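Predicting holo structure, adenosine monophosphate bound.
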Amino acid sequence: MNILLFGPNGSGKGTQGALLKQKFNLAHIESGAIFREHCGIGTELGKQAKAYMERGDLVPDDITIPMVLETLKSHGEKGWLLDGFPRNLLQAEKLWEAMQASDLTLDYVVEILLPRATAKSRIAGRRICSVDNNHPNNVHIAAIKPEDGKCRVCGGTLSERADDQDENAVNKRHDIYYDEKNGTLAAIRFFQGLAAQGKCRYIALDGQEDINTVKDTLLAELA
Ligand code: AMP
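Done. Tokens:
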């Protein structure tokens, strides 16, 4: 089972991703998390990616595309949930090319729909758990509001992501996401086109619903 998960920063993508991962026992491949890990360890890739990430820019395609395709290869057996990639039309085309060349099927493309203004207001409240960055914690969303500054799921230490607190960076990330011509919405349209040809299934979720409703809708759609 191979799944692509799309949603703007702030849409609850991490939460729904964790659900998909658990349900189908998938490798959860998050391009942003891989980059953050490289930055943390200080690898050459991390050094190259850091400045782009801090500004909210995309890391260039010639660094990102090979990195993600290599990671996918190493998780081929188990099936994967790809999150944060593709982020633009070129990445979408390269991913599909690579999948076809390796006879990989694409089972589902899941898109969480959320207006840009709502996504922006949610981002400032997001907190990252040191144990698992998919543990949902947001000081601006009642259902997942952490208590005493600790992770709601495991009690781990919480921190803010620097690029979440920088309004310019948030705006840039959303400029890329909501760009229907070359950005992430263009990548989604590319896969919707494939779905129309019967090559995968496309599922749209209303990200304005509360987390549990979105979860239930997703599970019903997958059944
Ligand atoms: P995220 O955690 O998905 O918000 O990603 C954090 C940052 O990593 C982004 O703002 C980009 O700088 C970089 N990044 C993650 N995924 C990609 C991608 N598919 N293409 C280019 N840059 C990416």
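The CA atoms of residues 30 and 137 lie 18 Å apart.
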